[in-house]
């Protein structure tokens, strides 16, 4: 990382819960700290929201994202602290489309932890990346310990307060860009439809607000050198070093949650260690509460004097046997 790049980073889920005594009806509420410095009051998820979530799990990405935003919005009672959002007021409703994407992810994680027993543990289906193995198994992520949380750098906070642009020089041109907002997800989806097969370019384009000396219609061509038709464009596109410089400029000013998670294949003959991107589709759902889990919980309630480690037992019951016949190959 270049000299002078200073990032304020925290681990172990710094944007956790701060309990408050207030209630909305019979729903417990908590204040959740966000990486931008803002904080919001959330209430627990109700059965009404669970109904919406159940129908969205197997839907297309766009619908899934919309439902997740809708559920967080429904469970959010308003700002406690407004952070860098000059348009916001304490106690007022949160417009999540205007919020940083990192704040939304942190709020979603906070809502899960607030709403469900053992909500800090998120079990997902993963597939071993070793092609000779291809084992499918369930991996439990501790949302406090296994994710990297990044606070909004002070420079970015100040720029947001003053409504100043972020800039970086790439190929001798000054590129103006903005932070990553929730609304940008929808914008990027529109760009992906218009420019299919150019996913990384559309991701960059969704954050660029100006390239000095380049017309807006040529921004995609400036990024990757491609054009919509057969006619050659005026630019050759960025090389790998230029692209990495742009990524670094984004990373330097961003905040949020690094959702890349490390897992180890439990199959004894494999043991492959790999990383995967944490899926959000089931983040706000109750999760897999098997009958066996429920039996253990009932036993713990009936025999409170016995030292029963529910979390350890559940992890053991969910870990597939090494070389299990239930694993599949593609």
What does the secondary structure layout of this molecule look like, with pairings?
Layout lengths: L8 E2 L6 E8 L2 E7 L5 E5 L3 H10 L4 H15 E6 L19 H15 L5 E7 L8 E7 L5 E3 L3 H9 L3 E5 L2 E5 L5 H12 L4 H7 L2 E4 L7 H6 L15 H14 L2 E3 L1 E5 L8 E5 L13 H12 L7 H9 L12
Antiparallel strand pairs: 1-8, 2-3, 3-4, 4-5, 6-7, 8-12, 9-10, 10-11, 13-14
What are the salient characteristics of this protein?
four-stranded antiparallel sheet; disordered C terminus; three-stranded antiparallel sheet; 330 residues; 2 domains; alpha+beta; 14 strands
Description:
This protein has 330 residues and is an alpha+beta fold. The chain folds into two domains: 9-149 and 262-288, no CATH class; 153-254, no CATH class. The chain has ten helices and 14 strands. Strand 9 (166-170) and strand 10 form a beta hairpin.
| Tally of alpha and pi helices | 10
Helix content: 25-40%
Strand arrangement in the largest pleated sheet:
2-3-4-5
- How many domains, in number, for the residues? 2
- Order of helices and strands, N to C? EEEEHHEHEEEHEEHHEHHEEEHH
Q: Tell the overall outline.
A: globular
The radius of gyration is 22 Å
Provide a brief overview of the structure:
The chain is an alpha+beta fold. The protein is globular, with a radius of gyration of 22 Å. The protein has ten helices and 14 strands.
């Amino acid at each position: 990382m270049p000299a002078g790049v200073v990032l304020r980073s925290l681990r172990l889920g710094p944007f956790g819960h701060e309990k408050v005594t207030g209630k909305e009806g019979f729903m417990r509420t908590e204040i959740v700290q966000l990486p931008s410095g803002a904080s919001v009051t959330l209430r627990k998820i109700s059965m009404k929201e669970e109904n919406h979530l159940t129908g969205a799990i197997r839907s297309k990405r766009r619908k899934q994202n919309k439902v997740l935003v809708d559920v967080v919005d429904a469970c959010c009672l308003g700002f406690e602290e407004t952070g860098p959002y000059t348009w916001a007021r304490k106690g007022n409703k949160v417009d999540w489309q205007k919020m940083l994407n990192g704040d939304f992810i942190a709020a979603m994680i906070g809502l899960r932890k607030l709403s469900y027993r053992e909500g800090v543990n998120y079990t997902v289906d993963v597939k071993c990346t070793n092609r000779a193995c291809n084992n499918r198994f369930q991996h439990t992520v501790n949302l406090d310990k296994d994710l990297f949380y990044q606070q909004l750098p002070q420079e970015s906070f100040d720029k947001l307060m003053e409504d100043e642009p972020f800039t970086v020089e790439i190929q001798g041109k000054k590129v103006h860009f903005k932070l990553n907002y929730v609304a940008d997800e929808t914008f990027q989806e529109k760009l992906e439809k218009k420019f299919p097969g150019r996913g990384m370019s559309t991701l960059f384009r969704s954050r660029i607000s100006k390239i000095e000396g380049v017309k807006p219609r040529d921004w995609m061509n400036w990024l990757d050198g491609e054009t919509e038709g057969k006619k050659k464009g005026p630019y050759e596109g960025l090389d790998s070093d230029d692209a990495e410089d742009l990524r670094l400029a984004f990373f330097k000013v961003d905040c949020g949650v690094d959702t890349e998670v490390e897992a180890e294949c439990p199959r004894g003959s494999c043991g492959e260690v790999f990383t995967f991107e944490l899926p959000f589709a089931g983040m706000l759902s109750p999760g897999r509460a098997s009958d066996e889990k429920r039996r253990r919980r009932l036993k713990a309630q009936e025999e409170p004097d016995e030292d029963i480690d529910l979390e350890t037992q559940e992890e053991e019951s969910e870990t597939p046997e090494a070389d299990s016949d239930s694993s599949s190959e593609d």
